[in-house]
Design brief:
This protein is of the alpha/beta class and about 210 residues long. The chain has 10 helices and 6 strands. It has 2 domains: about 130 residues, 3-Layer(aba) Sandwich (Rossmann fold), CATH 3.40.50; about 70 residues, Arc Repressor Mutant, subunit A (Orthogonal Bundle), CATH 1.10.10.
C-alpha cells in the first residue's frame, strides 16, 4: 500500500503519518492544501489517497472535490475522506460513480489503529467503508419500500456491518454467530437484491452502494 495524505492541520497529519508508518505502510506524499492536489496524488504513484474534506484555500469541500476529480481521471481510484462531523451529502458525491473503493471516517476514529488501518486496506482492495456513526443514522431510517425493505432484520444488520468495511469474521464476532451463518445471510441478501451474476467482491460493493445511496 502506498498512501498519499492531504491534511492541513500539521499535528493531525504528523500523527497520521506516524501511525501509518508504524504498520509498515509507505507514505508517498503529503499536502496541506488542495491546490494542485489531484496532480500531486497521481504523480506520486499512490495506491490510495487519504483526504481531509475541508482544506485550504476555502476550507469548504476541497477534499471531496479533489476525490471526485481523482476518480474521474482514474476511475475507481481508492479514496478515504476524513471529516470532523457527519456530512453525508459530501460523501454521496464520491459514491455517485458506482465504483466503490471509497471510505469515510470521522477524525476521532483515526487513532484507533485496528479500525483505521483496516479501513485503508479494505478501501484499497475495492471495498467501501463508512464511519459507524453514519451507519447508525442509516439504521434509524430503514426504508419501508423498495428492495432493501425486503431484507430481514438480520440481513439488514449484516449489510450495515459490511458498509463499515467489516469482513465476515468480524461480523460473526460482533453478532455472536458463526461465519457460516453470516455467509448465509449475505447470500440471502444478494438474492433479494438481484446481485447474483457477478463476483462475491463485486456483489458486496454493489450491495453496500445500494445501502448507502438509497
Amino acid at each position: 500500500m502506498r498512501v498519499f495524505i492531504a491534511e492541513d492541520q500539521l499535528l493531525v497529519r504528523k500523527g497520521i503519518e506516524q501511525l501509518i508508518r508504524a504498520h509498515g505502510i509507505e507514505i508517498v506524499g503529503t499536502a496541506d492544501t488542495a491546490i494542485g492536489l489531484e496532480d500531486a496524488v497521481l504523480a506520486s504513484g499512490a495506491s490510495i489517497a487519504l483526504l481531509d474534506i475541508r482544506m485550504p484555500p476555502t476550507e469548504t469541500d476541497e477534499g471531496i472535490r479533489a476525490g471526485v476529480e481523482l476518480r474521474r481521471r482514474s476511475p475507481g481510484f481508492p479514496v478515504v475522506v476524513l471529516s470532523q462531523y457527519v456530512e453525508q451529502l459530501y460523501f454521496n458525491e464520491l459514491l455517485a460513480d458506482g465504483h466503490g473503493a471509497v471510505g469515510y471516517l470521522l477524525k476521532d476514529r483515526v487513532f484507533d489503529d485496528r479500525r483505521f488501518i483496516g479501513v485503508l486496506r479494505a478501501v484499497e482492495a475495492g471495498d467501501t467503508a463508512v464511519d459507524p456513526e453514519v451507519i447508525a443514522r442509516l439504521e434509524q431510517r430503514r426504508p419501508a419500500t423498495g428492495v432493501l425493505a425486503e431484507l430481514t432484520d438480520r440481513e439488514y444488520e449484516v449489510l450495515g456491518y459490511m458498509a463499515m468495511g467489516a469482513a465476515n469474521s468480524e461480523i460473526a464476532e460482533r453478532l455472536f454467530v458463526t461465519e457460516k451463518a453470516v455467509a448465509k445471510h449475505i447470500n440471502g441478501m444478494f438474492a433479494k437484491l438481484s446481485l447474483s451474476d457477478t463476483t462475491v467482491s463485486s456483489r458486496r460493493v454493489q450491495a453496500v452502494l445500494m445501502y448507502l445511496r438509497r
